[in-house]
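From the methods appendix. Each design record in this collection lists the tokenized structure first, followed by the designed amino acid sequence. Records were kept in a plain field format so they could be parsed without special tools. The example shown here is representative of the layout used throughout.

RECORD:
FOLD TOKENS (127 positions):
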């Protein structure tokens, strides 16, 4: 994990945003998101418990890469992982996101990644 690229950082954020983007939605959108989540889970046979584990997976990636420690983001470490052009372009928004505190460290990692995704849509992708 030490060789993580800046793109991998943003990939983790994409995964997080897909997992629980409904948090910021109104009731109607949240209901639609739940319906899609449940229907696609049933159709594909995916273990929906895996979606819940995603938050802790993201936390693990962030801690292993040195981007998070004791529930706090290390923005300097995040920026150091990014290529120069991405760092210059995304630094203000990454700093503005800071650490988005959640119910626990897994939730904090997830919420911070959601903030990154929203702020850096052009550079955000999922592998």
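DESIGN:
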């Amino acid at each position: 994990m030490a060789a993580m690229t800046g793109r991998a950082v943003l990939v983790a954020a994409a995964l997080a945003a897909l997992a629980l983007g409904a948090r910021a939605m109104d009731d109607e959108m949240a209901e639609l998101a739940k319906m899609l989540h449940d229907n696609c889970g049933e159709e594909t046979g995916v273990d929906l418990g895996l979606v819940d584990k995603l938050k802790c997976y993201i936390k693990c990636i962030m801690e292993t890469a040195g981007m998070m420690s004791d529930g706090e983001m290390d923005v300097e470490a995040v920026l150091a992982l990014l290529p120069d052009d991405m760092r210059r372009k995304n630094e203000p928004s990454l700093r503005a996101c800071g650490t988005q505190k959640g119910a626990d460290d897994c939730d904090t990692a997830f919420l911070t990644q959601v903030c990154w995704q929203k702020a850096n849509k052009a550079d955000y992708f999922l592998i």
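APPENDIX NOTE: Residues 27-44 form the longest helix (18 residues).
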